[in-house]
Amino acid sequence: MAIQSWDALASKPGSPYAAADFSAAAYALIAQQVLYASDRMQTVPYRIVSEHLSAYQALFLMFGLDVQHVATEEFVAAVPIVERRTELSLDVTLLVLTLRSLFHIRSSRGETDAGRAVVTIEEIREEHQRLTGRELEAEGSTLKNLIEQTKRMGMARTVAADPNSDQPYDVAIMPGIARLVNEAVVSRLAAHYQSKGAYAPSVESDEPKEPEDGDE
Known about the structure:
It comes from Stenotrophobium rhamnosiphilum. The protein is built from nine helices and six strands, in the order ααβααββαβααββαα. By secondary structure, the protein is α+β, with helices and mostly antiparallel strands. It folds into two domains: 63 residues; 105 residues, Winged helix-like DNA-binding domain superfamily/Winged helix DNA-binding domain (Arc Repressor Mutant, subunit A). It has a three-stranded antiparallel sheet. A three-stranded antiparallel sheet has the order 4-6-5. A hairpin with a 4-residue loop joins β2 and β3. The longest helix is centred in the middle third of the chain and has 19 residues.
C-alpha cells in the first residue's frame, strides 16, 4: 500500500477535511490507541480514519501497527503486529484482566449495548476476587484512578450509575478491549504479575482454539 500525503487526501473532490484534520486524526489514534464514534471527542477522528482506512493502514504499518476497523461497533484500533512488553502496574494489570473477563461473559450472553458492557463496581470487585484471589480496593478514588488508566488505553470508562443505585458510578467496558487484550496479551500480562508473586488466573479468549492432537 502506498502512503498518501495528507494534502493529497484533503484535495480529493468532495473531501470535507483539511490536511490538518488528517494529521490530527493520526495523532489521536496514536495517543488513544482506540477511537470510538460514540465518544463526541473522537467522532471526527474516527470518521476520518474509517473513511480512509487504507491510507492509515499503510502509514501505521511502518510503525508495526495494524489499524483495524470494526464497523458493527464503530471503532478503529491501532493494534501492535509484533508482540511487545508494556510495563503496567500490578493493580492495573489485574484490573485489565478482570474487565476482559467481564466483557467476555457479558458479550457471550448478548448483554452489551452498542458493543459496550456496563458493569457495577460490585461486579468488578467480585470478579477481581474470583480471578486473582485478591481484594480490590474500591473505596475513595483508588478504583476510579485505575479506571482512568484503562480509559487512556481505550478499554473502559466510568458512566453514570442507575438512579436507584447507591454506587457513585458504573463502568462501561469498551469493545476495543477484545482486540487489545487477546490470548497472547493475556499470557504476557499473567507473566508480568506472576513474577510479582500474585495468583495467575486463566482468562478465556474469544479467539478460536486450534484442536489438540487426538481431538476430532
